[in-house]
Design brief:
Strand content: 25-35%
Radius of gyration: 24 Å
CATH architecture of the largest domain: Roll
Helix content: 40-55%
CATH topology of the largest domain: SH3 type barrels
Distance between the termini: 66 Å
Oligomer: single chain
Number of strands: 5
Strand order of the largest sheet: 4-3-2-1-5
Largest sheet: 5 strands, antiparallel
Structural class: alpha+beta
């Protein structure tokens, strides 16, 4: 029974794993954190009169903002209430993209 084990630097055996973790961080985790941060900033900067698009695609103008609820006017006398987090883009940004 011969068991041959390579006696090398233990750090070299973890190098591929460290590389994979770095790739995941820089290509997946970090961009998602930046996107989330900009979305949170956008939601906190919402003002009455802004034309916005909700995450479900409803387009309207903000009529009223209460703590976490936004009232959006989608027609002359039609209003809907949505959570602040469901407002995804400003209308001018949605037209460009």
């Amino acid at each position: 029974m011969l068991f041959l084990q390579a006696q090398g630097n233990p750090i070299m055996s973890f190098l591929p794993l460290i590389g994979i973790v770095l790739v995941f961080y820089f290509f997946f985790i970090r961009p998602q954190q930046k996107k989330q941060k900009s979305q949170n900033q956008f939601v906190s900067d919402l003002n009455k009169g802004d034309e916005v698009v909700t995450s479900s695609g409803i387009i309207g103008k903000i009529n009223k903002i209460d703590d976490n609820v936004v009232t959006i006017q989608i027609d002359q006398k039609t209003f809907i209430r949505v959570l602040k987090g469901s407002v995804s883009k400003e209308m001018t940004d949605a037209i460009r993209s």
